[in-house]
Amino acid sequence: MQDVWQAIVTGNTSDAFPAFFPMTAYEQIKALPNPAADYTDRLIPDFEQQLYSLHTSLGSNASVAQYVSTVVPSQYAVWVLPGVEANSGSYYRVYGTRMYYRVNGVTQYFTFLSLISWRGEWYIVHVTSFT
Length: 131
Prior knowledge:
Nuclear Transport Factor 2, Chain: A; 5 strands; alpha+beta; 31% helix
């Protein structure tokens, strides 16, 4: 999540890709005619745009904002069965992961909409909204 934080404060969204759900996993779990095209044509642009929106929301505070922690509410993770969310395979999904940061001594947070667990690691799929 340090990479995601770096992307948010700098606006260089490519820094966050290590935390983004891998395309090989997406291709394996999604029951779409062309999951690779959906990944590259929809998910990646949405990921970049939504991260950049978080960067913009920091405004002039981006240079002084400090990362504190990320909390994945794994106790609220659900096992998504095949056929739900246009998937052909199962996975754990959780809503509401929070990234805490501090600006001028005040702790604030961003909420990530959706993370998926793949092979024991949590990855961001949707930053702030589904599109």
